[in-house]
Design brief:
The chain is α+β, with helices and mostly antiparallel strands. The protein has helices spanning 9-13, 36-47, 58-66, 72-81; strands at residues 55-57, 85-87, 93-96. The chain is built from four helices and three strands. Strands 1-3-2 form a three-stranded antiparallel β-sheet. The longest helix is centred in the middle third of the chain and has 12 residues, at 36-47. The chain starts with 8 loop residues before the first helix and ends in a 7-residue tail after the last strand.
C-alpha cells in the first residue's frame, strides 16, 4: 500500500514498466529513455511539476529536475524542445506551456 496522495509508477506511466527507476525515492530515473515515446511520457510527467502561469528561473527549473535525474540540463532542453516548457530568448525564465502537444 502506497502513501496517500502518491501515485504508483504504474498509474503514472501505464504500460511503460520497463522505465528504469531508482529505489531510493521511487521517482528518480536511472537513465533517460532514448525511445521517443517513453521520453515523452517522462517529459509530460515532468511538465506537470511546473504550475501553469508561473515563471521559473533556470535555477528553480534545475532544482526541480535534479530530483529526477542528475542530467537536469538535458531534461530542461528536452522539455523546451518538445514545447512543454517555454523560455525567454536569453533562457533566464521558463514557464509551462498550456496543453502539452500529443505524441
Amino acid at each position: 500500500m502506497g502513501d496517500r496522495g502518491v501515485l504508483k509508477t504504474s498509474e503514472v506511466f501505464g504500460n511503460f514498466g520497463s522505465l528504469s527507476w531508482g529505489t531510493r525515492t521511487g521517482r528518480q530515473l536511472r537513465q533517460i529513455p532514448t525511445k521517443q515515446s517513453k521520453l515523452l511520457v517522462i517529459l509530460r510527467w515532468l511538465a506537470e511539476k511546473f504550475a501553469p502561469g508561473v515563471r521559473y528561473t533556470e535555477q528553480e527549473v534545475n532544482a526541480i529536475l535534479k530530483t529526477v535525474h542528475p542530467d537536469y540540463a538535458r531534461l530542461r532542453r528536452e522539455l523546451v524542445d518538445f514545447k512543454l516548457l517555454a523560455r525567454e530568448g536569453g533562457g533566464g525564465l521558463y514557464w509551462r506551456v498550456a496543453g502539452p502537444p500529443d505524441a
